[in-house]
Design a protein that fits this description.
Organism: Enterococcus hermanniensis
Helix content: 40-55%
Number of domains: 2
GO biological process, one term: small molecule metabolic process
Radius of gyration: 18 Å
CATH class of the largest domain: Alpha Beta
CATH topology of the largest domain: Rossmann fold
Pfam families: Hydrolase
Strand content: 5-15%
Protein name: HAD superfamily hydrolase
Shape: globular
GO molecular function: metal ion binding; phosphatase activity
CATH architecture of the largest domain: 3-Layer(aba) Sandwich
Length: about 240
């Protein structure tokens, strides 16, 4: 753990695919609307969906694209990437509606809940920095019950700031808003570019929750302090850090 155990005083989490398993609501929406998609293609399709979402949300922030256009583009392009037929904008937005319905029933991963309980018991400050539309992400925060562990003032949603991960500026904003010392802060997220690269560039420590077993992006090195490959490793890791 690169000697991180004695350094950390505060923990900041991502939400999507970190606090809950984002693939499940996606899978259910795909199964309802696009039954041609094979089970073998479900993970690759979800991966492409995340890539198009992460790569293009900045265009919404800068108002180059509307949120509606980005949402239609990401599912249509993901299907085409796997050689499925192109779909219409109407079909794309219907998918978004069904996907959002599935997101309304998301639940926190039980290992994350155990970890948050442990951190709260240890009186470790917990915060959130997440990319995405403000209303959409806040709805997830309420559905997941995150306010039981995190104060509202300790939540940053990218659209409300004009920045997004991996921008250093959003982590600098977190530093000020959460009154934390980056040298004693650990950021926890599943996305190497957004979560690991972004936080380490800002001088934070990083825990890569790589439960999808993704490879390091080409040309990058292992800059994170900790890498976990399952949710089940979270609690023991934090028990070690805050022993």
């Amino acid at each position: 753990m690169k000697g991180v155990s004695n350094l950390i005083e505060t923990v900041v989490f991502d939400i999507d695919d970190t606090i809950y398993d984002q693939q499940e609501p996606f899978r259910k929406a795909i199964q309802k609307l696009f039954p041609l998609v094979s089970e073998a293609d479900m993970l690759p399709l979800y991966t492409r969906f995340r890539v198009h979402s992460d790569n293009n949300f900045n265009k919404v922030i800068t108002q180059e694209w509307t949120l509606e256009y980005m949402r239609a583009h990401r599912i249509n392009q993901s299907l085409q990437d796997l050689n499925y037929p192109s779909i219409t904008d109407e079909e794309s937005l219907h998918f978004q509606s069904v996907y959002e319905d599935e997101l309304n029933s998301i639940s926190m991963h039980q290992e994350v809940e155990k970890t948050l309980d442990f951190l709260k018991e240890k009186q470790v400050p917990i915060s959130i920095i997440t990319n995405g539309p403000t209303d959409h992400q806040y709805k997830k925060i309420l559905q997941l019950g995150l306010l039981n562990w995190v104060d509202e003032d300790n939540i940053i949603i990218s659209q409300a700031t004009g920045y997004e991960k991996p921008d250093v500026e959003i982590f600098e904003l977190g530093k000020k808003q959460f009154a934390l010392n980056p040298e004693k802060a650990l950021y926890v997220g599943d996305n190497f570019k957004n979560d690991v690269l972004g936080s380490t560039r800002a001088g934070w420590h990083a825990l890569w929750l790589n439960h999808r077993n993704r490879q390091l992006p080409e040309g990058t090195s292992q800059i994170h302090d900790i890498e976990l490959t399952s949710f089940e490793q979270l609690l023991p890791t934090f028990q070690h850090i805050f022993a």
